[in-house]
Structures are given as structure tokens and as C-alpha cells.
Amino acid sequence: MRLVCFSDIHADYGFSLPEGDVLIFAGDFSGYSTELDVIVFNNLLKNLNFKHKIIVAGNHELQIENNPYCLESLFFCLSVLKLSS
Predict the structure, then answer these.
(1) Contact assessment for residue 50 and residue 20, using Cβ atoms and an 8 Å cutoff
(2) Does 81 fall in a domain?
(3) Residue 85 belongs to a domain
């Protein structure tokens, strides 16, 4: 199994990734925490060829920090895992 991990792109999508089985994004895809940042990142994820994608929100993803349950509507290409209370 090949893992590919990256983070801190801050809405700069001029990167390439190696092939792998599992993609792990470790936070900070947003530039200014706008809905457009989410839409663009989501479209990018949809087009990446990985069997599994794990996305962790960073401190720049204020829209998720302020409303963690908005993920289902924002990320249509992911299954959202929630913490149990």
C-alpha cells in the first residue's frame, strides 16, 4: 500500500502528486476560508485517482471549524467520519 501525504497548499493548486493508494491531506487547503476554496478543493479531490482519501481540516478551514457538520454538503466526494460524543 502506498500512502501519499501533503498539506498546507493554501489554495495554490500548482502541484503534482505521485501515484498511490491512499491520499492523506493534513490540513490548510484554504487561502481565505471561502466557499470557493472548498468548491475548488473538492473538485480537485474528485479528479484525483486514489482508492481512499483522508482529509483533515487545518486551522485555515474556518468554515469547517465553525460548523463541523457542514462537511456533507461541502464535500460531495468524501465520506465524513464524525467523532462520537
Answers:
(1) yes
(2) no
(3) no
